[in-house]
Design goal:
The protein is mostly helical and about 250 residues long. It is built from 13 helices and no strands. The chain is globular.
Length: about 250
């Protein structure tokens, strides 16, 4: 009975450790992301807004959205998009819990995707710190109307690429790859809402979003290549079974 109890206890322990590991990885990413602007590399504040103005025919796409929809004070429309923006801190956590609790066999591939999402943008944040629209062009930041001031950010010049877009997009691609279609559609929709939110709220340029759109498929492809290579190495070993014990009578024969 003691051996039977150890099995479920070990299973739960491993899942708790995995969940804590995901939280620790995000904290470590936040720590290094916050240090990136202290390396002394010049801050990008000219090229990205110029590209966005070219795309938007004189105005950045975010400014154009604000000219269409922002009334000058916070409305329920604005609160909805602020909620979408803030839900980035919660929604990926929910899918992490789902994978750990219900699809444990997929946790390795999921962990690879999330780790690469954290790791690959860090060199960009280090070598090309980039100001968001509300800093570089003194654009409107709608969240300041809701909070009464500029919210704290450990590194406000880590705007390119957009982590708000990269994270759900990479998860959506990975879920589609693994044929988890219902959840994939949830994340496709959430990604689309997030794209509108970061542009409309003045948090990112469109070029920040496009960089995330380009990086997310590369992350998922790399994660799956690593997973398949690892599985190919493990499979031959697991296929080998120990030889059956020979019957002494067969040796005598």
């Amino acid at each position: 009975m003691l051996e039977r109890a150890r099995g479920p206890a070990l299973n739960v322990t491993l899942r708790v450790i995995a969940f804590v590991g995901f939280l620790e990885a995000k904290l470590i990413f936040g720590y290094f992301r916050a240090l990136a602007d202290d390396a002394g590399f010049p801050v990008e504040r000219d090229v990205l807004p110029a590209i966005d103005r070219a795309i938007g025919l004189g105005m950045t796409p975010g400014q154009r959205l604000q000219s269409w929809f922002f009334t000058g004070s916070i409305t329920s429309f604005d609160n909805f998009w602020l909620g979408v923006y803030d839900s980035w801190f919660i929604v990926p956590l929910l899918v992490t819990l789902y994978i750990i609790i219900f699809r444990w066999e997929l946790v390795g591939g999921y962990a690879l995707v999330r780790l690469l999402v954290f790791v690959l943008p860090l060199p960009v944040y280090l070598l090309m710190p980039s100001e968001p629209p509300w800093m570089a062009i003194h654009g409107l930041r709608i969240v300041t109307f809701a909070t009464g001031g500029v919210p704290f950010d450990g590194n406000p010049v880590a705007a390119f690429p957009s982590m708000h877009v990269l994270t759900p997009l990479a998860i959506a691609l990975w879920l589609s790859w693994k044929r988890l279609d219902a959840m994939a559609w949830v994340f496709w929709i959430f990604t689309a809402l997030t794209v509108f939110a970061v542009l409309y709220l003045g948090e990112h340029y469109l070029v920040d979003v496009l960089a995330s759109v380009a990086l997310a498929p590369a992350i998922v492809l790399l994660a799956n290549a690593i997973e398949q290579k690892f599985s190919a190495r493990i499979a031959p070993r697991s296929a080998l079974s120990p030889p059956d014990a020979l019957d002494p009578s067969q040796l005598a024969a």
